[in-house]
Design brief:
Layout: H1 14-64, H2 68-101, E1 107-111, H3 112-124, E2 133-138, E3 143-147, H4 148-164, E4 171-179, E5 182-189, H5 211-216, H6 223-233, E6 237-243, E7 247-255
Parallel strand pairs: 2-4
Antiparallel strand pairs: 1-3, 4-5, 5-7, 6-7
Helix pairs in contact: 1-2, 2-6, 3-4, 4-6
Bound molecules: adenosine-5'-diphosphate.
Length: 260
C-alpha cells in the first residue's frame, strides 16, 4: 500500500481537483505495483516447476538408473524441461525488450498471403496424428510494410494455439482479406473455445485458462501477450471471439504501412 488517499472536501475547487488527481494517480500506481508483484510471482513459479522436475529426475537417475536406456530417457525428459525454461526466458526477454525501447521493427514488404500459406504448411506438421484439416484462404492478396520475423511469430503463435486447443479431426482455417483500409487475418478453429469470463485475460502474461492441461501441452501462457505486443507495434490490433466448446476466432488487423 502506497499511502492514504486524500480527503476531497470540495471536488469543484482547485485543491479538490488536485486531490482527486492525486488519488487517481495513487490508484494507478498501486495497480501497477500489484501487476509487477504478480508478475514476479508468476515468473518464479513458472521457472520453479521445471527446475523441480529436473532436480527430481536427476536425483532419481543418479540413484537408480543403471542401463544406458534409462539414462537416455532421463536426459530426454530433462531436455524437454530445459527447452521449456529456455522458451519462457526467451519470451520474457522479448517482452521486456519490447516494453523498454518499444519494439524495434525491421521493416520490409511482407506478402501476407505467401507468409500465411507457408505457415499453414508448417502448422500441419505440428501434430500430424491429430488429423486436423488446416487451410489458408487468400481472399485478397495483401502486402504490408512490416517486420517479417515478428509477423511470422504472431501468426505462428495463433496457429500453434489453434492446433493445441483443437481436438482431433477438427478444422482450422486462416483467411486473409482487407477490411476498412487494413489487412485482416482471421485464424479460425473448431476447438475448445474460451469461456467468456476468461476472455478479457488471455492476452495477459502467464494467463492460461486451464493451467493443468496446458502444462501437458507445453503451453507457457506468453504466446498471446507476445502476439499482441508485436501487432500493436505495427499499429494494428488483435481481437478474439470465442465460444466454449465451439471454437475461437482470432483476428489481426494490420495497417498497410506502419504509421500509415
Ligand atoms: P499458451 O502457451 O498457454 O497457449 P497463450 O498466451 O498463447 O499461452 O494463450 C493463453 C491461453 O488462452 C491458453 O492457455 C488457452 O487457455 C487460451 N487459448 C489461446 N488460444 C486458444 C484457442 N485457439 N482455443 C482455445 N483456447 C485458447
Amino acid at each position: 500500500n502506497l499511502g492514504h488517499r486524500l480527503e476531497v472536501d470540495n471536488p469543484q475547487d482547485e485543491i479538490g481537483r488536485l486531490a482527486e488527481t492525486f488519488n487517481d494517480t495513487l490508484e494507478r500506481l498501486e495497480y501497477a505495483f500489484t501487476r509487477v508483484r504478480q508478475f514476479s510471482a508468476d515468473v518464479s513459479h513458472e521457472l520453479r516447476t521445471p527446475l523441480t522436475i529436473l532436480r527430481g529426475e536427476t536425483e532419481v537417475g543418479l540413484r537408480w538408473a543403471k542401463e544406458p536406456e534409462e539414462f537416455r530417457e532421463l536426459f530426454q525428459s530433462n531436455l524437454e524441461e530445459i527447452n521449456r525454461m529456455s522458451k519462457i526466458i526467451e519470451c520474457l526477454l522479448d517482452l521486456s525488450r519490447a516494453e523498454e525501447g518499444g519494439v524495434k521493427l525491421e521493416l520490409a514488404e511482407v506478402d501476407l498471403g505467401d507468409l500465411l500459406e507457408a505457415l499453414v504448411q508448417q502448422a500441419r506438421l505440428i501434430d500430424p496424428d491429430k488429423g486436423l484439416r488446416i487451410a489458408a484462404t487468400v481472399e485478397t492478396a495483401v502486402t504490408v510494410r512490416g517486420d517479417w520475423l515478428k509477423l511470422r511469430q504472431v501468426f505462428m503463435n495463433l496457429l500453434d494455439n489453434a492446433v493445441k486447443y483443437t481436438p482431433g479431426g477438427g478444422e482450422i482455417s486462416v483467411v486473409l482479406d482487407t477490411n476498412s483500409g487494413m489487412a485482416r487475418v482471421a485464424v479460425i478453429d473448431s476447438g475448445a473455445g474460451i469461456p467468456v469470463d476468461h476472455l478479457p485475460h488471455i492476452f495477459e502474461r502467464f494467463y492460461r485458462v486451464d493451467k493443468a492441461r496446458n502444462r501437458a501441452d507445453g503451453g507457457v501462457g506468453l504466446g498471446l501477450s507476445l502476439a499482441r505486443m508485436f501487432v500493436e507495434a505495427h499499429g494494428g490490433r488483435i481481437e478474439v471471439v470465442s465460444e466454449a466448446g465451439k471454437g475461437s476466432v482470432f483476428t489481426v488487423y494490420l495497417p498497410f504501412a506502419v504509421g500509415g
